[in-house]
Amino acid sequence: MNDMARQDTPALVLDKVTKEYSQWQRSGETKDIIRNLLRPEKRVVTALDQVSLVINSGEFVAYAGANGAGKSTTIKILSGILTPTKGGVTVLGLNPLKDRIPLMHRVGVLFGQRTELWWDHPVITSFQWKKDVWNIPDQVYEKNLQMVTELLDLPDILKTFARELSLGQRMRADIAMLLLHGPELIFLDEPTLGLDVLAKQQMIGFLKKLNKEYGTTVVVTSHDMDDLEEMAQRVVFINKGKIAFDGDFDSLRSVMGGFYRILVTTQPGVPALSLPEMKLLHSENDVHEYEFDRTKVPIHEVLGNLSNYSQILDLEIKKAPIEDVVASLYLSWKEN
What we know:
Layout: H1 3-8, E1 12-25, H2 33-38, E2 41-55, E3 60-64, H3 71-78, E4 86-91, H4 100-104, E5 107-110, H5 123-133, H6 138-151, H7 167-178, E6 185-189, H8 197-214, E7 217-221, H9 225-231, E8 234-239, E9 242-247, H10 249-255, E10 259-266, E11 279-284, E12 287-293, H11 299-306, E13 312-319, H12 322-335
Parallel strand pairs: 3-7, 3-8, 5-6, 6-7
Antiparallel strand pairs: 1-2, 1-4, 8-9, 10-12, 10-13, 11-12
């Protein structure tokens, strides 16, 4: 496939995909043993319900949702690991089930920090093993090895045994191994989980650069919404097996209202001010944090109200943390 055809072909398409599981039900009571054997009950669980989704080549998309919402099921279907009960799926124009081998040469998948590194061998040995098993051409391997070594800062760990790596080092090595065959599309499950602040910044910076400079399509899942907001341009939320939201992070905030936070620093000993249309969240050391909905009270009106108080020393306005927005969203879904 030439480069123009690849650009015109969506990275992935889900067309009304449903995935159902059957679960045998057993009470666990001794008195029900015979009934469980002779007349077992079966319950059908719908993990995905008529899911339709298109992600275009070159996008960086966050795929989010609560535990059990259907995220992992979706990725496994796109990877050819699971078969959908109903609906159509294409990835890079291919069928993940029928074309799994050629597709895997164009896709990279990292699930739940499961490593493919050989535990009792140096990192470079695992890389060379993948080159041989995957039949990666010398030129492609050397080019990609040089890229990941430079961008992921690997020189000091290539000759280190995998079992001796820190979590951050191992994640960098796993991502590097994932990219050795030059995938056009990568799926990442919780790539920043457990990383310290510096390692997390390095990982996010690398993924953004990989997407922007190399055009790699990235689909990432995480429970850390701050990380997702920093990485991705688009966020897709799945709830109870259905797409509940698809858009950018500003649009996500507007779903729950235009909530903003304002930090008001007052002179020592001045109590929190009673301000119209503003909710006091907490006060500490003469700094008082309020929340307001700018769709109900414009920022200029908030500032106008605050200008009447001479006890104010400083102000800082910021968007509500995305974690709080998502928590409110989850709560609203749970109540419906």
